[in-house]
Amino acid sequence: FGLLLIYVSYLFFKRLLGEKKALYGAFILAIHPYLVRYSGQVLSESLATLLFTITVFFFYRGWVEEKGTYLGMSGCFLGLTYLTRPEYLVYYAPFALLLVGRKRFLHTLLFFLAFVFLALVYIMYLRLETGVWMISGKMIHSPFVPLSAAVTNIPAVIYHFLAAIFPPFLLLLLMGFRSVDVRFRTMSILLVIFHILSLSLVGHSTRRYSVEFVPFLALFVAEGIPVFLSFVGRFRYRVAVAFGVCILFVCLPLTQTISFHEGRGLQKSAGLFLLRNDPGSRIAARLPIESFYAKGSWINLEASCTNLQECNGLLDSLSSQGVKYMVLDDRITKGCPHIKDCLRGLPCIADFSDNKSYVRVYRLKNE
User: Which intervals hold domain Glycosyltransferase RgtA/B/C/D-like (predicted)?
Assistant: First the structure.
């Protein structure tokens, strides 16, 4: 999907900016570290990013040219994106606001029809499986946080969003921001605002959840490259400076050849182990990965460990919440060193490890 993403983006950039700047944008997408990394992993991010990018490009064209066909296609692709990653449902709101703001109610209805046909079937399936109305099965594992906590989450979400854009590309984006059509700027700003607010409502945010914004924001970067080259042209040794910067950008993808989340595979193994032995159980862990694979519910162990420093208080709190299993990894051991003392006397029923990290499953004595 990575190559197809570059090609689709190039076609849109060429239509809006011209061939030269379109090549700049395609080059940026080809070397962006996080796009390179996730396109090589068996995750849903690569497909979701492609579908969301097509959604944005079709919507912009239909919105600007007032063509319902493109808006209908945009709604269809956003529905497919929702089926890939249900959290993308939130983006119907900013797109609808842009249409309603111009009093294009028929186009708004057309945009939503695709969701009715594509997403309603999935929502009905979740209703039959869980007995409640929900837009995603992940809501069981990662419930929304209180409003006060959401406000405090906003700075962290912004940090991860900016990190996903990547600092060198962010600098070029700022250089080219004013050169882009004001309507595209308005749409992009609104999407970013809804993205940050929606992520702040969940328990945790990482930069992988913001990677889908890189392709269409690369349009700003493509506009910023000529501005940067004009700035470099003021230097006496401008050729050497430009060559050095080019080498730096080309080498950036190499920084992602080292995985910083090797333990995720171990956490998946722990989740599958619990799925085989006790599916649907309540699990306390640093991340909801184990509970997702075990089809259970998640309790944030890191937050519980931070708030409750005494072992008795921690174990009593987890037991009162119906937690049956505690999953310990090397990351939470470093963040909460005293948790090891709390585990003495608890049976370790599974141990998954490699040369760098480990994941252990403990059974709580609350039965």
Answer: 2-123
Is residue 37 over pLDDT 80? no
86-118, pLDDT tens digit by residue? 888 889 999 999 999 888 889 989 888 877 777
> Structure pTM?
0.69
State whether 172 and 295 are in the same domain: no
* Count of Cβ atoms closer than 10 Å to residue 310 Cβ: 10
Q: Are residues 213 and 333 in the same domain?
A: no
pLDDT score, position 65: 92
Cα 274 off chain centre by: 26
Q: Total domain count for the chain?
A: 2
Taking only the tens place, the pLDDT of each residue in 138-157 is 555 455 566 766 777 788 88
Residues in the chain: 367
